[in-house]
């Protein structure tokens, strides 16, 4: 698209689960090169927002455009990947297998191809790429471990590595640092900085405010499904509505 056009345009998005309005009239834009912090108390609607943007939830009001195109069309062309807050990994498979499956999760036929054999050259290429993604999150020494033996923090890093397999232009990270030890947190912060430097645009849901403040170029705050702030990190930190939302937790 043209310069200045938002990469992602979320317009008047609403989601209801029965009587619960998980999102109400939420609008914001994401521009190339940003690291957007998406924060708010538990239940604010952050993961639901990721479900809408990543196409997991198609039953929503409003519209989402990626590179100016309706989401369904844009997604078919790739370029957007996410990690899940509640990890979705195959417990009895290795770390490497789980990351390799990230290359095939986009289409149903891709998953079938992954299960029913590809040629050896293709498989070697995907494995090399998966090892590279594991190295980027610091898990290269753990490629052959079964996921069921991993700590929560390690599982989250596998989720991130799997998302990286898509070589995404937009990466949505849902609480990637939760449960991580200090050294892994620092590694994650460095990884996010490196991804941004490589041209990746990131939306980060994170409860650790030190991480949000260190990384975010802008912060959007949700509270009970509504957007209550969209500003620079320092301004959001001082915003009385934001302080009240957190005190009311
Ligand atoms: P956050 O990620 O900010 O903690 P969520 O997006 O997970 O919040 O949840 C927002 C609201 O929607 C909460 O009230 C939650 O209970 C509700 N919710 C989320 N997913 C579902 C679902 N699949 N069915 C019913 N209610 C849901
Ligand atoms: Mg959540």
UniProtKB/TrEMBL annotation:
Q: Which UniProt keywords apply?
A: ATP-binding, Cell membrane, Membrane, Nucleotide-binding, Transmembrane, Transmembrane helix, Transport
Q: Which residues form the ABC transporter domain?
A: 8-249
- Carries keyword Transmembrane? yes
Kindly list the GO CC terms recorded for this protein.
Answer: plasma membrane
Q: Which GO terms describe its molecular function?
A: ATP binding; ATP hydrolysis activity; branched-chain amino acid transmembrane transporter activity
Mostly located where?
Answer: membrane
Source organism, top-level taxon = Bacteria
**Where does the record place it?**
Cell membrane
What is the designated name of this protein?
Answer: ATP-binding cassette domain-containing protein
First and last residues shown, out of full length? 333 to 581 of 586
């Amino acid at each position: 698209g043209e310069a200045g056009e938002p990469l992602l345009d979320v317009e008047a998005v609403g989601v209801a689960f029965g009587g619960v309005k998980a999102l109400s009239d939420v609008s914001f834009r994401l521009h190339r090169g940003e690291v957007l912090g998406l924060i708010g108390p538990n239940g604010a609607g952050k993961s639901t927002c990721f479900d809408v943007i990543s196409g997991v939830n198609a039953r929503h009001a409003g519209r989402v455009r990626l590179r100016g195109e309706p989401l369904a069309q844009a997604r078919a062309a790739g370029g957007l990947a996410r990690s899940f807050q509640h990890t979705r990994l195959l417990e009895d498979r290795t770390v490497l297998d789980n990351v390799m499956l990230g290359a095939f999760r986009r289409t149903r036929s891709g998953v079938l191809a992954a299960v029913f054999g590809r040629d050896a050259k293709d498989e070697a290429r995907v494995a090399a790429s998966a090892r590279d993604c594991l190295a980027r999150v610091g898990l290269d020494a753990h490629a052959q471990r079964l996921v069921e033996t991993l700590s929560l923090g390690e599982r989250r890093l596998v989720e991130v590595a799997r998302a990286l397999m898509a070589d995404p232009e937009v990466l949505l990270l849902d609480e990637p640092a939760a449960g991580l030890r200090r050294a892994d947190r620092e590694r994650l912060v460095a990884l996010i900085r490196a991804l941004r430097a490589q041209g990746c645009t990131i939306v980060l849901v994170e409860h650790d405010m030190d991480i949000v403040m260190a990384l975010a170029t802008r912060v959007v705050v949700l509270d009970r499904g509504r957007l209550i702030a969209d500003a620079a990190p320092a301004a959001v930190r001082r915003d009385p509505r934001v302080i009240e939302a957190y005190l009311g937790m």
